[in-house]
């Protein structure tokens, strides 16, 4: 149970990321986020609307953690840094985040390298799922 958040900013009491078998309605299917694996435990995270269709978005545990880190980094960058709890959360930001803030630069993954049967971007070092 979390202590009352009165007098503290919301980002200091950010809830934990959902995990398999945590009481949420997890199912087995395809992850729509970063890994795009099929046949894994996934959780519905919302809907997406495109000009031609609407669909449900499902994510696996590791992709939820990555999404959580991105959202936290954006929230901290937008709302400003301050207290000790916020600084600790900022340490969880992936090392490939641009130094001038989240979401300000995009890597186009133009050059790749293969390591141990996996493909990585040479510029940002992220694993690419082709």
Can you put this structure into words, describing what you see?
- This protein has a domain at 10-94.
- It is α+β, with helices and mostly antiparallel strands and 130 residues long.
- Strand 5 (118-121) and strand 6 (127-128) form a beta hairpin.
- The chain is 20% helix and 23% strand.
- The strands form 2 sheets. Strands 1-2-3 form a 3-stranded antiparallel beta sheet. It has a 3-stranded antiparallel beta sheet with strand order 4-5-6, with no helix packed on it.
- Distance linking N and C termini: 41 Å
What is the radius of gyration? 17 Å
SSE order, one letter for each helix or strand: EEEHHEEE
Biggest sheet record: 3 strands, antiparallel
Kindly report the average pLDDT value: 73
Shape: globular
Strand order of the largest sheet: 1-2-3
Count of strand segments = 6
Q: What structural class do you assign from the helix and strand content?
A: alpha+beta
Number of discrete helical segments: 2
- Give the low-pLDDT segments: 83-104
Portion in strands = 15-25%
Query: Helix content range of the residues, please?
Result: 10-25%
Assembly level:
single chain
Could you give a quick summary of the protein structure above?
It is built from two helices and six strands. It has helices at residues 61-79, 84-90; strands spanning 27-29, 40-49, 54-60, 112-115, 118-121, 127-128.
């Amino acid at each position: 149970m979390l202590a009352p958040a009165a007098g503290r900013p919301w980002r200091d009491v950010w809830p934990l990321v959902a995990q398999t078998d945590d009481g949420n309605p997890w199912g087995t299917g395809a992850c729509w986020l970063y890994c795009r694996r099929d046949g894994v435990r996934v959780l519905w995270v919302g809907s997406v609307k495109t000009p031609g269709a609407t669909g449900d978005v499902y994510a696996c545990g590791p992709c939820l953690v990555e999404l959580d880190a991105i959202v936290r980094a954006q929230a901290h960058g937008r709302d400003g840094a301050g207290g000790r709890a916020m600084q600790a959360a900022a340490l969880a930001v992936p090392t490939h985040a641009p130094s001038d803030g989240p979401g300000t630069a995009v890597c186009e993954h133009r050059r790749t390298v293969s390591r141990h049967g996996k493909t990585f971007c040479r510029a940002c070092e992220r694993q690419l799922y082709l």
